[in-house]
Each structure stands twice: as C-alpha cells, then as structure tokens.
Amino acid sequence: MADIRHTNWVDGAHQPPTKELIHVINPATEASIATIDATPLETVSSIIESSLKNFSSGVWSQTDASTRFTVLSKAATLLRSRLPEFINLETQQTGRPIREMKAQLSRIPEWLEYFASLARTHEGRVTPFKGPVINTLTRLPLGVVVHITPWNHPLLIATKKIAAALAAGNTVIVKPSESAPLSVLKMGKLFQEAGLPDGTLQIVSGYGRETGKFLCESRLIAKIDLTGGLATYEAIAPNASKNLIPITAELGGKAPVCFFPSMPVEKGVKAALFASFIASGQTCVTGSRLLIHSDIYDEFVELLVSRTKTLRVGDPTDDKTQIGAVISRASVDRCSAFVERAIVDGGKLLCGGEPTTVDAKGFFFQPTLIETKADSDLACNEVFGPVIALIKCSSEEDIIQVANATSFALGASVWTDDFNQAHRVAEKIDAGLVWINGHHLNDPSSPWGGFKESGMGKENGIEAFESYTKVKSTIINYGQEPTWFDDEVENARYG
Ligand code: NAD
Predict the structure, then answer these.
(1) Is the confidence at residue 493, as pLDDT, over 80?
(2) Could you give the angle at the alpha carbon of 137 between the alpha carbons of 131 and 140, nearest 5°?
(3) Which residues does UniProt mark as catalytic (predicted)?
(4) For the chain, what is the domain count?
(5) How far is the CA of 149 from the centre of ligand 1 (A)?
(6) Which of 94, 226, 345, 487 has a CA between 20 and 30 Å from the CA of residue 139?
(7) CA of 250 to the centre of ligand 1 (A)
(8) Is residue 468 part of a domain?
(9) What's the pLDDT at 484?
C-alpha cells in the first residue's frame, strides 16, 4: 500500500493537509502506509466552533425522527456495499487477521440500522402528575459530543458511538486513535453520501495528549465518549467534571473465563482459544485469566497447550492466518516484560513467551500460556496482548472469588453444562457483561460497559441512545387558573 495522505474530514470536505503529520504504521510489515494530520490546536478550536454552529442551526439537531432513520439506514447500506475496502484498510492498520476483520466489519452496518430504528421508534413519556395536568418528557440532543476512540477495533467502536449520537440528533467530533485512524477518516464522505448535513460529523486526527486533550477540555462540548485506558480517563475527567459534562468511559479489563467439570474438555479448550487469542489478545474483554476447576485442570491444560502451539501466526492478509500482529514495538516489549515478571513471580511458562516476526518483519508475539497464582501481576493487570494466565481453582466458590479479585469488571464468561451452576455463578460475578457458554458475543441492542475500573456508562442499546439525550419536562395545566394573589378567590376562601 502506498504512503497516502489522509486528511481531516471537516464541514463536509477533506481539508488541506496541515504541516505536522503522523505516520501510520502497518504493524505486520513495519512500513508506513499513510500519513495523517497532527492537527494544530487553533484548527481544532475552529472545528469545535463550527460544530457548535452546526448544532445550533438545527440542520440535524432539529430534524425529525424519520429523516434520521433514513440517513442512518442509507449509511448502513453504503457501508455494506463498500466492506472490502474498509476490511483491507482495517487489516493493514491494525495487523489483525483478515478473517477476523471480515467477520467483524460485516456486522458494523447493523449498528447503524439499530440506531436508525431506535431514532424512529423511541418514544417520550407522560408522567402520572397530580391534577388536571399533562406532563410530557421529551428527549433532546445534548450538543457537540466528542468521541475518543482506540486502535483495536477502530471502525466498530467509532461506529457504535457515532450511530447512537447521530440518532439522538447530536453533532459529533471524532478523534480516532493516531495508531489506526484510516477507516474512521473514510466514514465522513460515506455519511455525506447518505444525506448527513455537512458539519454534523467532523473527523479530526492527532495525538491524544494534544488534539484529544484539547477537544476534551473545551467548554463548548456537551459530552465525551471515550474508549481507552484508565490513564486517559483520569487525564480527561477533572476538566469534564469542572465543565459539568458527562463521560461514557469504556476502559480496560481482565476477563475471567471460568471452566467447570461438567463441560467437555474439548469444548472448553476451543472456548479458551477463542476467548483468549482473537485480536492477539488485544480486546478489552480478552479472556486473559483462565480459571480452571482442579478436577479437569491437568487434562484441560495439556490439550490447551498442544492446540495453542498449532495456532498459525502469520501474514494478516492471508486468509489462513489465525494470529496477526500486535499494534507496536512497545506492545511487544510490554508482552515480554509481563512474561519476565510472571516467571520471577513463580509462574510456569507452558508455551510461547517470545517476540516473533513474519518474513523477518513485524510486531508479533507468540501465543503464550503461563500457569500462575491468582494474585500475581499477570493475573491482575491488563496485558493487552496474547499472554494468558492459567489459574487452578479448587471449587466453585474459589472460581467466583478469583473472578472478582481484580480492579476490573468488564467481561467474564462461565462455561458449564450444569444449568443451575451457570446461573449461580453468573449471578455472583461482578462484571458489566457475563456470558454463559459464550464469549465476545456482541449485538447493537445489548448494553456494553464495565464496572469498577473498567469504566462507566454503556455503549449499545437503549442505554447508549438515552445517554446522548437530556430530558425536558413540559407541564401543561388544562384545569385551574392561578389563584394566589387573587382577592376574589382569597375572600371567598377565608372570608
Ligand atoms: P488509549 O487510552 O491510549 O487511547 C485511546 C484514545 O485516547 C486514543 O484516541 C488516544 O489518542 C486518546 N488519548 C490518549 N490520551 C489522551 C488525553 N490525555 N486526552 C484525550 N485523549 C487522549 O488506549 P488504546 O491504547 O488506544 O486502547 C487500549 C485500551 O482501550 C485498553 O485499556 C483497552 O482495554 C481499552 N478498550 C476498552 C474497550 C471497552 O469497550 N471497554 C474496548 C476497546 C479497548
């Protein structure tokens, strides 16, 4: 792929390139595949002002539900017709296997369709107000909302947020990750073709600590929706709090995957591979802690290790590749450091543990399994790579206790053929998402978000749509006239 300049999408057009640029690196080849703007702060400032004008004009914020439905539905159709080019870009910029990107991107139009339908069907309420009064509650858009998105599922995560925010009538500024911004930068033109008024979706690239920080500190914005790390949340939260604006925060995780003896070991091992190694372990719900009941532990681990050793690490553009690259050299180094510390902690390396390359290039790390203690560094902290902790647990209670023993609470899965046990355990696990005999399952209608240090608020579902609105209460008196300070009424009452 040639080194192409991708510029900001603002007010309905790609803008001339700014002076400062950032190289986007294909992690599988280490080649620069594109350059983007490190947008100067004066430019960001004028983009915010222009976005506010767009919102105040009502060109989108005051459109009716049927128009929003039509535009978002059309965007879904256009995206579906252009999937191959987006899949290719996504594979190049993330280094993830093309078979994963085909599966993931083929579902993204559903988010646009779901929120289109919600825009069209979501209704207000009438409260049981006392007396001859009608009290209506209507939902209004918030204003200019800022989306700060990560590199691991660039298009999926940005589209989830954009669809919900636009459905509710907001004006959106997206700042995609500087590591993988290309697919998101292409969405502006697509939405324009779908009929979205210019200036309603602005896509601005740059570094998080500069462009992202500046956007989040603006007093003109009405909400921040962040997917990223806890440190990023901590950097933006104080100002948001001062400016009285809400944050949706989708942060990190350390998902426990709980295996019980009633589940056939073969099925459990397939589940573990799926939960742990999709995206080379770079998802917020990666099954990064396998909690295995002692009754099946030895058999389970033997089979899992032999299957893990056969996973095909390779060129992400090859349909047969199962494990692609990790995002950067820094990510490879972080994986190595976790392995070293795990061994110092007394962990036992069962397979993998080393950086690797494909055709002598790229940022790859071997799929790695390490037997460790429940309170070790590896068992408690997010790696965001293919380095997985195995923990032997003595009982159902032990599995529940270990599952809840980190500061994260995003995803968790329970694998058992015992129906009662499945519900008992799921109920006691403290996490925003608990799958029973599944993992990574996601749907636009299903609220997604964590507890504890995994964040607050939800993507997806009615919850996400409503989080992009404010409630206005209109109170209609169709009965009595005002009686206070009315001499005639007061004389009658007290005379
Ligand atoms: P990151 O926090 O480094 O970056 C995320 C975004 O924040 C990027 O666009 C970045 O430029 C921006 N940013 C960084 N510093 C900023 C600042 N001071 N002000 C404003 N913006 C700033 O995260 P990442 O490395 O891109 O993604 C990995 C993290 O995201 C992991 O912790 C992962 O668990 C989490 N994640 C969570 C979910 C979820 O649904 N909960 C999904 C995917 C990823």
Answers:
(1) no
(2) 155
(3) 250
(4) 2
(5) 6
(6) 226
(7) 9
(8) yes
(9) 83
Distance 456 CA to ligand 1 centre (A): 14
Phi/psi of residue 299, each to 5°?
-65, -45
Residue 23 CA from chain centroid, whole number = 24
User: Residue of the nearest CA to atom 18 in ligand 1?
Assistant: 209
Contact present, 54 and 200 (Cβ < 8 Å): yes
pLDDT digits (tens, 9 = 90+) for 343-394: 999 999 999 999 999 999 999 999 999 999 999 999 999 999 999 999 999 9
Contact 311, 304 (CB under 8 A): no
- Is there a domain that residue 490 lies in? no
User: Which domain covers residue 221, as residue numbers?
Assistant: 5-251+454-474
Q: What is the pLDDT of residues 403-459, one digit of tens each?
A: 999 999 999 999 999 999 999 999 999 999 999 999 999 999 999 999 999 999 999
Atom of ligand 1 nearest to the CA of 178: 11
* Contact predicate 338/370, CB 8 Å: no
Report, as an integer, the average pLDDT of 331-354. Answer: 98
Catalogue the active-site residues.
250
Q: 246 and 260 in one domain? A: no
* Alpha helices, DSSP H, located in 126-229: 154-167, 182-185, 187-194, 213-217
Kindly list the protein residues whose Cβ atom lies closer than 6 A to any atom of ligand 1: 148-152, 175, 177-178, 208-209, 212-213, 216, 227-229, 232, 235-236, 250-253, 284, 382, 384, 410, 450, 455
Q: Are residues 459 and 429 in the same domain?
A: no
What's the CATH code of the domain at 13?
3.40.605.10
Ligand 1 atom closest to Cα of residue 215: 20
Q: Which amino acid residue places its CA nearest to atom 23 of ligand 1? A: 228
